[in-house]
Amino acid sequence: MINNAAHVRTNRARWNEISDDYQRLNAPQIRRQVFTGDISWGLWAVPESRLGVLGEVTGRDILEMGCGGGQWSSALVRRGGRPIGLDLSERQLHHSRQLAAETGLSFPLIQASAEAVPFADDSFDIVFADHGAFSFADPFRAVPEAARVLRPGGLLAFSHVSPIYEITVAPGRDAPGSRLTRDYFGLRLLAEADGLVSANLPYGTWIRLFRDNDLVIEDLLEPRPAPPASDSHSEEPAPAQPERGDKAWARRWPSECIWRLRKPTR
Ligand SMILES: C[S@@+](CC[C@H](N)C(=O)[O-])C[C@H]1O[C@@H](n2cnc3c(N)ncnc32)[C@H](O)[C@@H]1O
Which residues form the Methyltransferase type domain (predicted)? Predict the structure, then answer.
């Protein structure tokens, strides 16, 4: 089910265009996860085994929102989970099918928008995304949908770039900077330099949105890259014009966050 909002149409078309490049550029991390089952979160590839965000997955019904190449869902099959991969882009799903054919791992893949999830209420034990649909879908539609399809006691976990990162992105750039450029209180749907529309909210608005959907916040993780190996006490200064994925920037400021939320038992 794909809703017809302008940002959803834009993101579907754009993800179809950039999917082959995205899969090629990220192939080392994607293929490592698919073929070893070692799952890691976000820009800094922090292992799930260290963070323990999802916890036990064996026998759990799991929905991955914005699964891309399906590396997370593949790894969860290896761990005894029952994932379904959902994505807006047919080209991303094509890559997911190709990788699944290479490994022989099978799990359902569906084309849909996180803003109109085609599953009944209380269908899943875990709903999650790693820089997936929650980074692009309107949070005021995607969070209620995730809460709706979760069973009581279920876990919603997702990562996205931090609101602080977002407000330092200068016009025409797709990397953070060291000056505030965008309006913090204007965060919701943001036209990015690469043609995508990204989604984010002020921290307080995220928190009220979770509360309005009866989700209890268990944690907000702010992963950072490891310190420089040579001398862990001296931090490099962040460059004035960092590139995307700049480690010195992300040592000083939060580049991403991972929410861990619980739907209470009734
Ligand atoms: C940055 S990619 C991440 C994919 C995967 N988690 C990874 O780490 O490679 C974001 C994914 O979200 C998908 N997406 C964007 N908007 C979406 C929406 N409204 N509903 C479902 N998926 C969406 C895109 O098609 C894309 O595959």
Answer: 63-158
144 in Cβ contact with 133 (< 8 Å): no
Report domain 6-225+244-262's class: alpha beta
222/242 Cα distance (integer angstroms): 19
85 lines ligand 1 (CB under 6 A): no
What residue ranges do the domains of the chain occupy? 6-225+244-262
Among candidate residues 152, 149, 257, 122, the one with its CA nearest the CA of residue 203 = 257
Q: In this structure, which amino acid lies at residue 244?
A: R
Q: Which residues make Cβ contacts (< 8 Å) with residue 4, sequence separation at least 6?
A: none
| Per-position pLDDT tens, the chain of length 266 | 778 899 999 999 999 999 999 999 999 999 999 999 999 999 999 999 999 999 999 999 999 999 999 999 999 999 999 999 999 999 999 999 999 999 999 999 999 999 999 999 999 999 999 999 999 999 999 999 999 999 999 999 999 999 999 999 988 888 899 899 999 999 999 999 999 999 999 999 999 999 999 999 999 999 999 887 765 556 666 666 666 778 999 999 999 999 999 999 97
Ligand 1: which of 12, 43, 92 to mutate, most ligand atoms within 8 Å of CB?
A: 92
